[in-house]
Amino acid sequence: MLKIRKIALDTEPENTAFLSRHCAAYRAEEFRALKKIEISAAQGREKRGILATLVIADDPAIVGREELGLGAQAFRRLGLPEGALVRIAQARPPKSLDAVRRKIAGEVMSPGEIDAIIADIATHRYSPMEIAAFLIASASFTTTGEMLATTRAMAKTGAQLKWDAPLVVDKHCIGGIPGNRTSMIVTPIVAAHGLQMPKTSSRAITSPSGTADTMEVLADVSLSIDRMREVVQHENACLVWGGHVNLSPADDVLITVERPLSIDTREQMVASILSKKLAAGSTHIVLDIPVGPTAKVRSQGEAIRLRKLMEFVAKEIGLVIDVVFTNGAQPVGRGIGPVLEARDIMAVLKNEPGAPADLKARSILLAGHVLDFDPALRGGAGRARAQALLHSGEALAAMERIIEAQGRTTGDLLPGALCADVIAPRTGCVTALDCFRIARIARLAGAPMDKGAGLDLFKKIGDHAEKGEPLYRIHSCFKSDFEFAKSMAMESAGVSLDDAPVRESLRK
After folding, report:
1. Is the pTM of this model over 0.85?
2. Considering 58, 120, 264, 450, which one is annotated as catalytic?
């Protein structure tokens, strides 16, 4: 038996274990061939165990002869205190990998095989390489039956929320548009109306901010399921981080491999989104699909195909869905990054004269679609009701109550103090904004890790810019991030004037 020791190393998404080459209980060389071990609790009735990639350590300062070191992820997932006794053994490959091999060979997987694969992924029994094999094989072809089975399997691997209300609404955007933080306006509008909207949102992985990152500027988002229920019971809605309540955990694991490989199939997107909505206990969903030249969905044909896939799976799993196509040609609002986005959101809720008109209009549109699910409203009256709730201040009051119930964030969070303006090198009209490029510059600036980092947009498509006038401002909190963001903006700013891209136009 070995005593576990927490090693302060972040090896996300993998579980990593450290064994001394001179281990007193095991011969390290015996485990080097497969490099993967099974770790199990040596005492107690409760069976706890994880698979981990093994690293052999020669430095006794890292791990002692009678210890097993665990990286941060492995230690958290095993769930035992430091000093607890464990045993290790050569890990057997998950049996579900046989189904992945058949999928690679072109065969169709059964629902039972998909259940086993998703369960093994959710419990971290697959390495990133094995997950990549599954994703790439699925990307080559996926039947509607496999897509449906994957959605159901992903929904049942984690927590499954149930609500007393017969109508539990949600709104989701497929992403890809910087600043498109409409959920934080739609949710309080819906709460003020009286419908239940337990909104669980993600943190950013490759974008400058997720809804949870932006909401965290205002309130605590890491609520337990019980606390989340209390907030919804009293305020009709919440805005929390879905990862903390363990909804569809296999999806979170898959995403960590999908994003670096740029694997983003429509079938996997459907399974990802709808599995989380099903697990969250939603009954009615509005899905926002932005369509634009640099968005995730770039043509009307692609959007229609995705809508049909969503509608098919939603019907099969018992969800009512309303798919809305929106303009994805450019970022929404002015701010890109948590603090700057939160500023825009509160400006809209407070009905400030300078609030971003596009963020306000899109939020009212989507909130109207959500409210149209209410049988008490006449058909098509949802939009007018949403507008009235926003303009009257009832939505703002609902948001303030949600913030207080979740736990208001203390201290002033301000935009990053390191600033540089990207300026117009000539006079002209803004003809294009590259969502992907602008998001990357904002992320290099430090968003969302630094809440105050990001971009502040001053010009949108159709706006006139004079030579030397700022197009947007970069905000950073750290010098290195600031230099990275400026360098990328100098290379290509993501803005086109009269169809010519802006380059080499920076002013501190």
Report:
1. yes
2. 264
